[in-house]
Specification:
215 residues; mainly alpha; 0% strand; globular
Length: 215
């Protein structure tokens, strides 16, 4: 006489991690739109108003003001998205990751501010800020997206971050106003595509935030 023992699913074995469980996800459209406007309005106004033959005569402070305002709104939206993911998380590790990612946005831009301020002060080149802020902010945002995409297993977020990090740093090779055109078209265009892709992703039952649990 043989006794058959029911098999316990691997995901429910005590002490063993649920390999199929996915981290809580959020809707990133508000963040993409905010940063997209920052790229198009901030970098776009710099692109058309700088160079030997500017297309428009705009005040020198306007591009940086538009960029800064858009980045500020986008950073708030991104931090809020990280906090929403934290609240939706059920695993202790996911909760901690959400807290750390939310704090990373503040830390990243604070570090960027210190780096740019220190470089311009040490080198005595205050005008270099107009080059480092646009490219540096894109680089920091890209790296943060890569980290968030890896943690949340969101390929769209990860891919957008990779694109932003590479195009932002590559734009430095062109100088002004070429780098502003690259950031406007490559960055602003990427955010537009990502917003549409995010809409499709969140509209499907499988990708809607709050519906992702054990696969």
């Amino acid at each position: 006489m043989s006794v058959t023992t029911p098999l316990t699913p691997a995901a429910t074995v005590p002490g063993r991690p649920a390999a199929a469980r996915r981290p809580a996800d959020v809707d990133n459209r508000a963040t993409y739109i905010s940063f997209g406007f920052a790229y198009v309005l901030g970098h776009g106004s710099a692109a058309v108003s700088q160079g030997d033959a500017p297309l428009l005569g705009l005040p020198g402070w306007l591009p940086m003001t538009l960029l800064g305002a858009g980045l500020a709104v986008g950073t708030v939206q991104a931090t809020a998205a990280a906090l929403r993911a934290q609240r939706a998380a059920t695993e202790p590790d996911d909760v901690l990751s959400g807290k750390l990612l939310g704090a990373a946005w503040v830390t990243g831009f604070a570090a960027l501010y210190l780096a740019i301020t220190g470089l311009t002060s040490t080198l005595g080149l205050p005008d270099v800020q107009s080059l480092l802020w646009p490219t540096g902010s894109g680089f920091v945002v890209g790296l943060l997206y890569i980290a968030e995409g890896a943690q949340r297993r969101n390929l769209l977020h990860y891919g957008l971050g990779s694109w932003l990090a590479l195009t932002s740093t590559a734009a430095l090779l062109l100088g002004a106003p070429g780098l502003y055109w690259v950031l406007t078209v490559a960055g602003g265009g990427a955010y537009a595509v990502a917003t549409l892709a995010e809409h499709r992703r969140t509209s499907s039952p499988a990708g809607r935030p709050g519906t992702r649990g054990v696969a």
